[in-house]
Design a protein that fits this description.
This protein has 259 residues and is mainly β. Helix content is 10%, strand content 59%. Strand 2 and strand 3 form a beta hairpin. The radius of gyration is 22 Å and the shape is elongated.
């Protein structure tokens, strides 16, 4: 195939296949060396196979992938209907670069328990309405398998805040649970507090005070529990505070914690 253009009501834009090799025998469809693009996004060196039986399945892997939110958001979020508190964190601008991706699942539809995905993160630069600054990631691994989202060895920055060797697992079931750990994190109150306080789950605990200045340094962090029940979370961490200013009507003047 050379410069094939595909259109579909389910695609927000035309899908361009610049090149690729395809073979079909019986119920098995194979492809290799495929370079594809949609909008500004592109995926190179795609290869894989699909078995077109009663329940068609496809498995594939690719090389370098460059993805822009404006191209992929209509596909990812159109039918999933993310909860209202999370919509403000949907990326609106930026770019995601994966070095390698693998995917397996049904050809049609996206039943979560049959979908598997993994990717090596090369670089992420994303911004959204819910974040005070762009989210930057320069390494890590992401995967989805059997209703479980896993992040591994993530190094990330947002404004002055940064986190290193961050890993997390989210079990997406009737009651979503999580476990996260990281080697170290330096968090600036003015950047992190507004994000946490914006969640309805945390508002009963955070509405009595605010912290907009200072630095919180965490090490050897291990936190787990049900996402919607912070009172049931289990914590294991070390923390140090520098120049933290806490504001509350009950205190009157700000409470400053120097160290």
């Amino acid at each position: 195939v050379n410069k094939l253009i595909l259109t579909s009501p389910k695609l927000p834009q035309d899908l361009l296949i610049n090149q690729g090799n395809f073979a079909w025998q019986g119920s098995q469809f194979e492809f290799s060396g495929v370079d594809a693009a949609m909008g500004r996004s592109s995926v190179s060196n795609i290869s894989g196979k699909s078995n077109w039986k009663k329940s068609p399945m496809v498995s594939a892997q690719s090389g370098l992938s460059i993805i822009y939110p404006e191209d992929i958001n209509p596909l990812v979020f159109a039918s999933n209907n993310p909860s209202k508190p999370l919509t403000r964190f949907i990326p609106r601008k930026g770019k995601v670069t994966f070095e390698r991706m693998t995917h397996s699942g049904p050809v049609a539809g996206m039943p979560q328990d049959q979908l598997a995905f993994s990717a090596d993160v090369k670089q992420v630069n994303l911004s959204s309405k819910g974040l005070p600054a762009s989210l930057l990631v320069d390494r890590g691994h992401i995967s989805w398998h059997q209703n479980q989202l896993t992040l591994t060895n993530i190094n990330a920055r947002m404004g002055k805040s940064k986190i290193s060797q961050f890993s997390a697992t989210f079990d997406i079931k009737s009651q979503v649970s999580f476990r996260l750990n990281c080697k170290s994190a330096t968090l600036f109150a003015g950047e992190i507090y507004p994000v946490i306080a914006s969640f309805e789950t945390f508002q009963p605990d955070f509405k009595a005070f605010s912290a907009t200045e200072g630095t919180l340094v965490l090490t050897d962090v291990d936190v787990n529990g049900p996402v919607q029940a912070p009172a049931q979370w289990h914590y294991d961490l070390k923390a140090a505070i520098q120049n933290m200013a806490v504001y509350s009507e009950a205190l009157g003047d700000p409470l400053t914690i120097n160290s």
